[in-house]
Design a protein that fits this description.
- The protein has 166 residues and is of the alpha/beta class.
- 44% of the residues lie in helices and 17% in strands.
- The chain contains 5 helices and 6 strands.
- It has helices at 22-47, 71-91, 110-114, 119-126, 135-147; strands spanning 4-7, 53-60, 96-103, 107-108, 133-134, 156-159.
- The strands form 2 sheets. The chain has a 4-stranded parallel sheet with strand order 1-2-3-6, with helices on both faces. Strands 4-5 form a two-stranded parallel ribbon.
- Strand 2 (53-60), helix 2 (71-91) and strand 3 (96-103) form a beta-alpha-beta unit.
- Helix 1 runs parallel beside helix 2 (71-91).
- The longest helix is centred in the N-terminal third of the chain and has 26 residues, at 22-47.
- The radius of gyration is 17 Å and the shape is globular.
- The chain starts with a strand and ends in a 7-residue tail after the last strand.
Length: 166
């Protein structure tokens, strides 16, 4: 039985609102929200008999604010955030810690660095030294959530590089 499950689906895609097809919106919802529901439901079924465990959902700043061209992504991530809140309130009393982590910034990982034949790496480097999130630092924060005392659980954590651009 799992003691820690971390859910992370990105698929941050943008499009002009008037050009979004229903399939585009539904696709992002399925990837970013519905899949989180499915993973969360199955995880909770497995953790419930144990009376303990940690379920962490990776969100994005889009879950709290919509930007032009990102309406479909923002609505899907906001839905995931609401599922996480509902699951936390329903299963917290049973000893299961459900958390939502807002990852607000470029992550210095393989996906970004290999994107566009290296264009993603150049974009990340343009942010300057320590202008992106370290995968190791993100993992440390996830582990910290898992190890928290149940008398002071964090539900939502907001991670961002200290040299972010406003």
């Amino acid at each position: 039985m799992p003691e820690l499950v971390a859910f992370n689906v990105g698929s941050n895609r943008f499009k002009d609102l008037l050009d979004m097809s229903p399939e585009f919106v539904e696709g992002l919802w399925r990837e970013c929200c519905f899949s989180g529901f499915l993973v969360g439901q199955e995880t909770l079924r497995r953790m419930q008999p144990l009376g303990k465990g940690t379920l962490i959902f990776t969100g994005a700043s889009a879950s709290m604010r919509g930007k032009p061209k990102f309406g479909a992504f923002a609505s899907a991530k906001a839905g995931l955030r609401m599922f996480a809140q509902a699951m936390a309130r329903e299963f917290g009393p049973e000893g299961i810690h459900v958390a939502h982590v807002v990852v607000d910034g470029v992550v210095d990982g393989d996906r970004v660095n290999k994107f566009g034949g290296g264009a993603g790496r150049l974009y990340r480097l343009s942010k300057g030294s320590q202008g992106s999130l370290s995968t190791e630092a993100i993992a440390e924060n996830y582990w910290h959530l898992h190890c928290q005392d149940p008398t002071a659980w964090t539900h939502e954590l907001d991670l961002r590089p200290w040299r972010e651009s406003w």
